[in-house]
Amino acid sequence: MLRDVDESDSYANLVLPPLLRDRGISGRDAAFATELAYGTLRLRGRYDAIIEICAARTLDKIEAPVLDLLRLGAHQLLGMRVPAHAAVSETVGLARERTGVGSGQFVNAVLRSVGRESLETWLERIGEVADPAGTDVVARLAVTESHPAWVARAMREALVGNGRSAEELGDLLRADNLAPQVTLVARPGLIRTGDLVEETRGAGTRGHWTPTAVVLSGGDPGVIPAVRDCRAGVQDEASQLVALALTVAPLLGESDSRWLDLCAGPGGKAALLGAVAHERGARLVANEVTPHRVRLVEHALAALPRDTIEEIRTGDGRIVGQDEPGSYDRVLVDAPCTGLGALRRRPEARWRRTPSDLAQLGTLQRELLTSALTAVRPGGVVAYVTCSPHLAETQLVIKDVLRKRADVEVIDARPAVRRIAGQNIPLGDRPDIQLWPHVHGTDAMHLTLLRRALEGTAVDEAV
């Protein structure tokens, strides 16, 4: 699986489940395999630093399949409750089978060296290598908490840029390394949250921030009847919260009958919006540029009444505003992004993304938001959402777009979020919303609400 993820740009959460099913692995064995695979991916940076010391050579001098085995062995030794002799012998046996006798001897020597020290000792040692002068806490945290240095620095900037302390960086990076619980969404009008809890047969409890969330303590969500027939779905609570906040954001004017999800794939937020739209007598258009993701949207929306879904279309969201100006009351822009806010669930993303991705994504994000602001009617609201806290994908996008739009204002998203989540949800002093795994226990989702001014109405430039 590690080779598939590395060589084909596959996602672990898409590769591993069918692999386990095909091999008939279930129960405790499946849980062990999942932790071994995901944990190794999450903590790869930490283990690579340790392996370099123990192997006395740089990683580029180690063949990729052998390095994968060393990472798996290191995680068993330092990150799981596997007896040292079992972790070493099993990994060495696998090395001999897959990569040859010589590599088995090398793996044996390296893993025995890894196992001679405790995790705490290793963290101190690799931290000193990364920060020999003891003056660069971000460099030290990047290697000990297994994040690329550029990601760690971007996270620090995001914390400060959202009014939080830079001292929280360690807690944030550690939260990224924790396996998240699976969260379900009970789609309103299709199933009640309490009924979904009952369908989990004791594995589910109500979520913390949204009335639609159910958190699973374990098990396969795919066996739950409501998930199978799309009355419910798997969806992080942050994703539920930002979608629901759009549905209660205040509009100007009477119309509230036509909603748009501009970037609807894979369909989770569109399904939630559609369910609420049905209860309110509105209709939803779900737009997605990629044909295979359109099929995912169609599946996610399958349980919704047909008269609620005006259209599921394949189209470029950047031209919707040009083609349909002023046509929608509420528009969601769930913009393509680096995904740095979902590193708990997509552990390979931190190693796959590079700073150069920001420029290409930034252009697309600005074009999509501009299109959405043209597609929404005067008095209507656009929700700009990213699953990334990076300032280049959030605040800077908003600032750049607003410079060219005298008819748009940012509205305070906090009342809408508190209407859904309650008054006790920790929010900052800014009108936009940034959620955090170490604060809210969710993905690091960003939300900005923007409203197009009514014709002849001045926009408050101070917002």
From TrEMBL:
A Pfam family it matches: NusB
Entries under PROSITE patterns matching the protein: SAM_MT_RSMB_NOP
Residues forming the catalytic site: 387 (nucleophile)
Residue sites binding S-adenosyl-L-methionine per the record: 263-269, 288, 316, 334
Residues covered by the SAM-dependent MTase RsmB/NOP-type domain: 158-453
One of the protein's GO biological processes: regulation of DNA-templated transcription
Keyword list, A-Z: Methyltransferase, RNA-binding, S-adenosyl-L-methionine, Transferase
Gene Ontology terms for molecular function: RNA binding; RNA methyltransferase activity
Record keyword Acetylation present: no
CDD domains: AdoMet_MTases (cd02440)
Family from the record: Belongs to the class I-like SAM-binding methyltransferase superfamily. RsmB/NOP family.
Annotated protein name in UniProt: rRNA small subunit methyltransferase B
Source organism: Pengzhenrongella frigida
Highest classification ranks of the organism: Bacteria, Bacillati, Actinomycetota, Actinomycetes, Micrococcales
